Amino acid sequence: MKMARYLDRENKVCFGALTESGAVHPIIGDIFGECRSSAEVVAPCKLLAPVPVSPPAIFCIGLNYRRHAAETNAKIPQYPVVFMKGPNAVQNPNDPILLPRHLRSETVDYECELAIVIGRTCKNVSRGEALKHVLG
Question: How far is CA 106 from the centre of its chain?
Answer without folding.
Answer: 27
